[in-house]
Design a protein that fits this description.
The chain is mainly α. The chain contains 24 helices and 5 strands. The chain has a 3-stranded mixed β-sheet, covered by helices on one side. Strand 4 (351-352) and strand 5 (355-356) form a beta hairpin. The relative contact order is 0.10.
Length: 531
């Protein structure tokens, strides 16, 4: 790398990460917000809460666009792959931020954003950092004092948000209130926060009465922009849709064959209806997931799938109540630091709303969910990213790579023989079909290839209830560009595997992928060609 190019990239990267850590300390420290970098400097601001004041955000946007302009002036040597990778990753991260804050203006559209910041800022100190922050009580008090200002910003900012966002915000606000009451001692600061949450709920009730149920679907150009600028991905939308459609049809054929081989007179739908989850109560359910982590970690080691870094412990716990409205059966929360005393969290949703869930229906997928979220999926990928020496690749993650890898991990364990019974294989394939439908909806609704009703029928056909499907469709409509990451990201990884695993071997293939950072797939290909 030419000295000036290396120096310029480092200077801009340090400036970018440092600025974002100061401007958005809670969001940058969390793994909830894919459109922001995981800026490590946010650990310096544990007494602060992000400001979403509109004038402040306008200033942030101007500053970040100035850095973007500086990046665009850098022209690295074409033979210097590392410089090109770093440049592309910085551009992607900045583009995702600008997409959310300048184009989509998430701070005007999504009430839940404010509750997420509020609760994560407190919960980081209550739970995740409790073992490594000696002054957590003082820090919590200082953050509580700043939460009313954040909720006042919400009052000024929220302008005609989509009704599903308003409804989700109301659910989260009430869950946050209950969480704070049960986890913090009474204080003047807490009383003020609870009062502001009630005012926030009143605001949302008013917005709900005057808000159209229309979800304000973005158009084709917005999706193309996020793919090109945020993911560095250039396949045409029509081709992406066809890839997802082909995956869907292929998977259904595989499911029919498995059912036929198991019992010629049975259909796979009937086989899954009779499947019984080996857990009868919440305690057994948490133990079931914990057991999968141990087994999958063992599989990753025994099969020598990748060079393992230092791996922090994973705690399996019930999903915090404030996250329940936005979580499905399970989710992963990355450690905030590399401190060995801090653990990762694998959240399991035992209750949905106020109704006890039927374990057999919601947690049938526990094997594949565990692989997706822990080994060899998100936990392994996150830990490797956070161990990298390169600060750019250590602090930037790509939704396309991130979800693509976790989906690839699910199929990898099946290929390695970890999944044994026909029913378990069917459950894994149904997940693939579900994700393919999500990708088809993400793209197809914007290129007139698929309607929401058609996608809804496809989801119903693979076993989801009408009420669940309705909620799915709404969620997928509002998170454009993310739903395709699972199937299409996996597809691109599988293409790389077909092309290079015979040359590199499986372990070196995985090491090359993961230890280069979550880089665009065409640059992965270029790296592997050079080996």
């Amino acid at each position: 790398m030419m000295k000036d190019t290396k120096t310029d990239l480092k200077r801009i990267a340090d400036d970018y990460f440092g600025y974002m850590a100061r401007a958005y300390p809670v969001m940058c420290l969390s793994d909830e917000f894919y459109f922001l970098p995981r800026a490590e400097g946010a650990m310096k601001f544990l007494t602060e809460i992000d400001s979403l004041d509109s004038d402040k955000i306008a200033g942030d946007i101007r500053y970040i666009k100035g850095l973007q302009k500086e990046l665009q002036a850098i022209d690295p040597d074409p033979s210097d792959l590392d410089a090109r990778i770093d440049l592309v990753m910085l551009n992607e991260s900045i583009s995702l931020y600008l997409e959310e804050f300048e184009t989509t203006q998430i701070y005007r559209r999504d009430p839940a954003l404010y509750i997420n910041i509020l609760m994560l800022g407190v919960d980081h100190l209550i739970t995740k950092l409790s073992s490594i922050v000696p002054e957590k009580k003082k820090f919590i008090e200082m953050r509580l004092k700043k939460i009313p200002r954040l909720l006042d910003e919400a009052k000024r900012n929220l302008k005609d948000p989509p009704l599903p966002y308003v409804e989700r915000g109301l659910q989260m606000a009430e869950a946050a209130r209950l969480y704070l009451i049960s986890h913090l001692p009474h204080s003047k600061e807490l009383d003020k926060v609870l009062e502001k949450i009630e005012e926030f709920k009143d605001l949302l009730h008013k917005l709900a009465k005057g808000t159209d149920s229309n979800t304000n679907i973005v158009e084709r150009a917005a999706l193309e922009s996020i793919l090109k600028n945020g993911y560095s991905y250039n396949r045409p939308l029509e081709e992406i849709f066809q890839i997802a459609k082909s995956e869907y049809k292929k998977v259904l054929d595989q499911m029919d064959k498995i059912a036929s081989d198991a019992s010629p007179k049975k259909e796979w739908q009937a086989m899954l209806l009779k499947y019984k989850l080996p857990a009868k109560d919440p305690g057994e359910l948490l133990s079931l997931y914990a057991g999968q982590i141990d087994k999958l970690r063992g599989l990753t080691t025994t099969e020598d799938l990748v060079t393992l870094p230092y791996l922090q412990n994973i705690l399996v716990v019930e999903t915090p109540k404030y996250l329940a409205p936005v979580r499905a059966s399970a989710s992963y929360s990355c450690p905030l630091t590399m401190n060995e005393r801090e653990a990762a969290y694998f959240y399991i949703s035992i209750f949905l709303g106020e109704v006890k869930s039927k374990f057999e229906n919601i947690h049938q997928e526990y094997i594949f969910v565990s692989a997706h979220e822990t080994y060899p999926g998100h936990h392994l990928l996150d830990t490797i990213r956070r161990s990298l020496e390169n600060p750019i690749r250590r602090q930037i993650e790509s939704p396309f790579f991130y979800e693509g890898w976790a989906s690839y991990a699910e199929e990898l364990i099946a290929e390695l023989g970890y999944v044994k019974t026909p029913e378990e294989k069917l459950i894994g394939l149904r997940r693939q079909a579900w994700r393919a439908i999500r990708a088809m909806l993400d793209v197809g609704t914007r290129i007139n290839k698929l309607t929401h009703d058609e996608g809804g029928r496809m989801l119903t056909d693979i076993g989801y209830s009408r009420n669940v499907v309705k909620a799915m469709i709404t969620h997928y409509s509002l998170t454009y560009g993310y739903q395709l990451c699972y199937t299409i990201g996996k597809f691109e990884l599988e293409q790389l595997k077909k092309e290079f695993v015979s040359k590199l071997g499986l372990k070196k293939f995985h090491d090359t992928l993961l230890y280069d950072g979550q880089i665009p797939f065409d640059l992965c290909r270029e790296r592997m060609k050079r080996l």
